[in-house]
Amino acid sequence: MAIRIFITGGTFDKEYNELNGELFFKDTHMHDLLEMGRNKVPVAITTLMLIDSLEMTDKDREWIVHQCRQCAENKIVITHGTDTMAETAGVLAKNIKNKTIVLTGAMIPIKFGSSDGLFNIGGALAFVQSLQPGVYVAMNGRYFNWDNVRKNKDTGIFEESK
Amino acid sequence: MAIRIFITGGTFDKEYNELNGELFFKDTHMHDLLEMGRNKVPVAITTLMLIDSLEMTDKDREWIVHQCRQCAENKIVITHGTDTMAETAGVLAKNIKNKTIVLTGAMIPIKFGSSDGLFNIGGALAFVQSLQPGVYVAMNGRYFNWDNVRKNKDTGIFEESK
Amino acid sequence: MAIRIFITGGTFDKEYNELNGELFFKDTHMHDLLEMGRNKVPVAITTLMLIDSLEMTDKDREWIVHQCRQCAENKIVITHGTDTMAETAGVLAKNIKNKTIVLTGAMIPIKFGSSDGLFNIGGALAFVQSLQPGVYVAMNGRYFNWDNVRKNKDTGIFEESK
Amino acid sequence: MAIRIFITGGTFDKEYNELNGELFFKDTHMHDLLEMGRNKVPVAITTLMLIDSLEMTDKDREWIVHQCRQCAENKIVITHGTDTMAETAGVLAKNIKNKTIVLTGAMIPIKFGSSDGLFNIGGALAFVQSLQPGVYVAMNGRYFNWDNVRKNKDTGIFEESK
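Predict the joint structure of the above. Result:
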């Protein structure tokens, strides 16, 4: 069965607006990344929202939970802003069992030259295929259980929270 | 314990010689890739050789086996040319037990704009952390057991051989 | 004699701060660009300031005029934010005669993948070598006299103002 | 009137064939480059041939001369392999007067990350707009008269031949 990929936004998909110098969302770059990676794992990509994760509401997270629960696939990758990725992971873990869900994102927009996005999506797709059911964050080459992860705001690096 | 990364060459590390228009090896780009991916998994990188895998000899493969066996780490990623990656995987599997070894590479040199190398190394690092001991090939977002993989020469895609 | 290159900032040299998602200045990327372009025209690069051109003051422009006047070279390229590039060109034209001064910049930061910066600096260096003394803006592959140029705020394109 | 751009091939437009590891021609990348540069100079692009300049024959050069002579535009940019760029410039100069013709190319294919192609085309377009009628080579940020240029085979740098 295919792997479901849900897009929620975050730095991963931000673009530079050359008229006003601000970052904005237009569309996901997931298809381009998977093509660049010559990915042949069957995937089904759905864009749930394209927002900065600092602006993600409880309602948004309910929607993500709902989509993860109702989709046919039991292996799910979610792209997500890094600032509240751990929080969303917690909400998912409390509501969904028996599926392997891996959240990932990027520190640098994919559209910018030196993004970590391609590395991270390569890792997330691998982890979702090989880890036991559960909710995980995959960043910095590592995976973390949902209840033992935080983003270090000073360094931008994900680390154990316990 | 750190993950051992052995470099053997392949398209992954090829560069363009602007004086004669040929591809050549100078040094591995693994460090740059891991930096771009903001990798924080402890790794120890050793360049065993920098060769086209079509030119890899039995002697070279013995050397790779020897290095994999004698190193302290039991999780090993090997970068390798795609043409004989499956063959080297077979030699490793027959000689080494109790270690997780993941071979990966690239169809496009990392130094060229649209390489799959960053995606592949992200996947290989994830697979080596999460798969059981054994020898695997990680390409195209997928992983293959050493005894069930071949590169389709017409498409450049890795697939099951059975 | 060398061509003098004065750096003043602008989108050209902005970078993405991955900790707070904002754009900022660290250093000029001019040296990298000239190396990528295999430039062999003798140049002397001086960073006068690294600011957004919307924040450029009269005092800043006086400083640029002073530097252009006092430097030994009579061919000068200035990198500058696009929003007030035409204004600075006007100030320079009123104060400096007998030198060829070409202002250029970028709509997309050089550090991002798809910048126009390398194209623009290639053009600016060519124009400064071949145009008569005067003050010009070089953008969009074209050159404009200082008194007949404006940036169209709606399109981001430079055009004649008369 | 528009600037005519004639494409003849060279490293500029080479691509990497990931199935056999060789470089080949598919199509010109000129349109992508001009879009990236936000070029607004009217241009008319014609691909005359896509060949390695070491394989360019007298017949090919006749064809280029014919096209340059018969086209309506009197400002012409020609992309060309670097190895025999100076030779073609000489043939053009002996056959065409009253037009400004600028030959340029690249040391690294545009499709590879670190190409000088965007810088060179930015320069060539600027030189063709500002130089007197004649035949020139524009490389390394400089322009050379057709009768005083050669490529240094050891360094890959263009220099005066006298």
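The mean pLDDT of chain D is 97.
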